[in-house]
Design a protein that fits this description.
Chain lengths: 427, 316
Amino acid sequence: MKPIAFSNARLIDPATGVDMPGDLLVSDGRIIGTGANLAAIGVPEGATVIDCGGHVLAPGIVDFNVTIGEPGARHRESFRSGGLAAAAGGVTTMVTQPDTDPPIDDPAVLEFVNRRAQEVCAVRVLPKATVTKGALGREMTEYGFLRDAGAVAFSDGERAIADPVVFRRCLEYARSVDALVCHYPQEPHFSTIGCATEGVFATLRGLPGVPAAAEAIMLTRDIRIAALTGARYHASCISTAESLGILSRARENGMDVTCSIAVPHFALNELDIADFRTFSKVLPPLRHEDDRAAMEEGIASGLIDVIVSAHRPLDEESKRLPYAQAAAGGVGVETLLPVTLDLHHRVGVPLTTLFERLSLAPARLVGLEAGHLGKGALADLVLFDPGAPWRIDRKALRSKSKNSPFHDRLVQGRVLGTWVGGARVFG
Amino acid sequence: MTATASFPHRHLLGIEEMAPADIVTILDRADDCVVLNRAARKKRDLLKGLTQINMFFESSTRTLASFELAGKRLGADVMNMAVKASSVNKGETLIDTAMTLNAMHPDILVVRHDQSGAVNLLAQKVNCSVINAGDGRREHPTQALLDALTIRRRKGKLHRLTVAICGDVFHSRVARSNIHLLNKMENRVRIIAPPTLCPAGIDRLGAEVFHDMRAGLEGCDVVMMLRLQQERMAGGFIPSHREYFHRYGLDEEKLSEANSDVIVMHPGPMNRGVEIDSDLADDINRSVIQEQVEMGVAVRMAVLELLAENRAGGMV
């Protein structure tokens, strides 16, 4: 592969906090240098020069929570369609969810996923496997074998493991193979009887409510069990201000816990359900405005480590139902960057901070040599115009499923090009 | 009869989106209908040639009968569909069912569904007028309107009254519609229920919450009892029926805290001895429960007329 020289770019490197005009050089799929200009770095002969036109060149996004329909629901999303959507959104690695049909709870299924991803997917795929067999919350899976087969983390998707005894044993055993366990911290006895956050809005709409405390209750339990076992614990898709307090205290006590937030929980609140818009139905349910605002602060301050799309493709039939019966989840891999950039434009969060949450932190979680622009890093890059305005049209998204909660939203930030290992996959 | 008062709506989906003037328009028209209903010859032909389909996804006896009678007295062709037993079991979705019916060109659809928001969803997909006959826990607008008509006729006004709504507010669409309506007409609304049957944030919808029934009934002009939804009691909302009746059942003794000219209402069907004392329910001086049934037909006739006039006037 010919070397590539990116010139006239605004470089964003979350590892060093650099945000400056400069040039970047790629060879053999890796970054070999950055500098104020190409002359300073020294351009090898025959390099392809790409003029970035002053736009932002940043490490490609590592989306830590993406659902693909394979196996079991390829009509909703295949590795091909999901990969194209990801590339168009500046996502260079998808860490995929294991609650497929059948669930990824066995090395054979994991190998199928790896093979399919390698054959047809435009971007990198790093699969998660389930914490328990069938994601049923009863028996642990083969963490050792699954790790060997390429599982980068373990998760039961949006199912919480209710039994503390089971969860403790899972974490204890996971620790012995240094596995990262992601858990959805929602007390299931509460969360399965409602579809909106308890409060005046849910009451007004007559929707069965879940108290926001269902999250704090489970997160508190999880952190106690993580402390008991010493395992690597990650709280998936947190959404309440109370959770931030719990995480902050855990870190003050020296615990290495991480957490992620899905875009809808800092970009939308419960009022976006409006008159029963099922496209706004996500898990956990959209929260009160106070909680949404706290999420912005959490992202800015670093209490929240990772921003994910929680991409969940669903067909129209499962959404065109009365609210309580409709399926929960939204596609998001393609809109992750532009919606997140709102935090830069409106709240003033620096781009280096946003790319720490989008690229660097998740890359470190899964042990990927990416997420920064340092020498030797994988040449997974996104080039985008941060100011370009456009209106999200769900029908125009590349996912097979069009269930976007951000349909019709005005955003700023358009991806111009995406590279995975130095190969252009979009733009 | 004059058709001057306007009712600028295509559907009747809930009280929440209505203006006080809309409510008054319906009640005034319903007063006329009461006169007609009490006459020997009860039929009018305002809805002649129009088709009304009553689509009930949830079982109902009195509301369905009331809508059927209202439509027939106005001369509409009325068809009842109990959908629960038919298509839904075959996997047809709500929208498919609605589209199928829509293709038969009804003029008015009366819909009841056990899911909040289902009637709104359906209204988006059909060409005709839709009347909400109760959706999940959200709204039951014609019930609130008939309650308002009953109060207005008994009390001579529908403002500056203290109204207590007692019982299972948590599961009740009747309570939500009544809270909206009574607040819009500038009344004081109280909720009397055990904490487990009070939905979160109900106080912020304009209701004062009481867990002590005697305190809540003090000085009330109107007491609305709600049915204790026994089929929804699986979650253990109350310890037992006998403790519930002891603390929240309406009897002579508790009612003595209210004003002497208090009226007692119940949307039916009643659980005698659980939420209301049997003798009290039959006390013709205070209980207006039978009158509510009569007003129900009148209010539904009024709503059907107003929506039909809009259709005739080409308003969409």
